[in-house]
Amino acid sequence: MKRFILTVGPALLNEVPLTDIHDERNIYRINGAHGSISDIEQYIQKIREQVPDADILMDLPGNKVRTKDLPDGGIRVEKGKTFEIPSECFNFKEFYRYLKPGMTAWANDSVFEFETVSADQDKIVFLSKSEGVLIDNKGVHVRGIHDEIPFLFEKDRQLVEVANKWALAFVGLSFVRKPENVKEVRSLIRGKTDLITKIETLDAVYQINEILPLTKYILVDRGDLSTDIGVEKIPRFQKYIIDKALFFDVKVFLATQVLKNMETKPIPTIGEVEALYEIYKSGVYGVQMSEETAVGKFIPNCIEMLHRMEKEVLAETIVF
User: Fold this and answer.
1) Alpha carbon distance 240, 234 (integer Å)
2) Average pLDDT over residues 127-152
3) For the purposes of burial, counting CB atoms within 10 Å of the CB of 242, is it exposed (0-12), middle (13-18) or buried (19 or more)?
4) Following CA atoms 22, 42, 56, 208 in sequence, which dihedral angle do they give, to the nearest 10 degrees?
5) Largest Cα–Cα separation, the chain
6) Alpha-carbon distance 270 to 240, whole Å?
7) Which of 156, 161, 194, 224 sits at 20 to 30 Å (Cα–Cα) from 34?
8) Quick one: pLDDT at residue 166?
9) How far apart are CA 275 and CA 83, in angstroms?
10) How far apart are CA 77 and CA 55, in angstroms?
């Protein structure tokens, strides 16, 4: 294991300063989906104040349709009942144009499943097949509609300029579907910023042989990929993508729920430990902590576990 991507947020960087956990192998990730351009520049400034030479990853939101400006407290959805969302309450205001009755939408990394009832410029009506509360800034994914949607939304372009301005180490490309997407962003990058191409769509998997020669790094985002292929297929696809990247000598990061239990508890589950061991043994270059560090309650414990597991994998003999 060479690098660890740690997502900053209300917890890491604010409640827990970077100086408490810093290691030169850390890459500090800013999720560009959260906050305004001004907010994100403040994150960069604060990172640089705490660790002046830190490697920073600007993770572009990409053309993921997200909820926005929902009522306070979100929208409660109930299984078997319809609900509506104003069409303007999405980051892509033309979203309604791509929906047809009967289409399935998965929200919040497949936590929610909805069926489209109707969609027009005023509102979108869904039939919920799930229970819970849908809140702001959660992805709403509908398979098969992205061919006509622009690869970069306006905020993505603004964030690339921020990355250029601050000479960030990395820019993460979300929802890549074809080689042209990587080339488009590459043409906008100035300086020595590296791209981390995220493999999180079925289209990207289909075109993996064409995408890999264009990038030095990829990141397998299992959460978003699961909405495209189904969660039961993640282990098989994960192995396929990693093997392909290693063949092309491309460095691989792995993300999503690596130590999910440690958001709220000081230790991982045994299942997470076993999975992390296998991840390390698979030849990946690094793993990404998302909610575990952005909002987690046990950040030092989480990072310590990453290092402890690394030592375990490197151990050549069993010591009782």
Assistant:
1) 10
2) 89
3) buried
4) 140
5) 66
6) 25
7) 194
8) 97
9) 38
10) 40
CB-facing half-sphere around the CA of 95: CA atoms within 13 A: 29
Three-class DSSP category at 164: helix
User: Which residues lie closer than 8 Å to 30 by C-beta, 6 or more apart?
Assistant: 7, 8, 40, 43, 44, 47, 56, 57, 58, 59
pTM: 0.87
Which residue(s) pair with 86 in the sheet? Answer: 123
What pLDDT score does 188 carry?
A: 97
Asked if 174 contacts 200 with a C-beta cutoff of 8 angstroms, the reply is yes
Percent of the chain exceeding pLDDT 70 equals: 98
Assess contact for 140 and 119: CB atoms under 8 A.
Answer: no
168 pLDDT exceeds 90?
Answer: yes
For 181-212, the DSSP string reads HHHHHHTT--TTPEEEEEE-SHHHHHTHHHHG
Tell me the per-residue pLDDT of 237-278, one tens digit each, with 9 for 90 and over. Answer: 999 999 999 999 999 999 999 999 999 999 999 999 999 999
Pairing of strands 112-119, 123-128: antiparallel
Spatial CB neighbours of 167, under 8 Å, sequence gap ≥ 6: 191, 192, 193
Choose between 239 and 109: higher pLDDT.
239
- Report the candidate in 30, 33, 35 with the shortest Cα–Cα distance to residue 54: 30
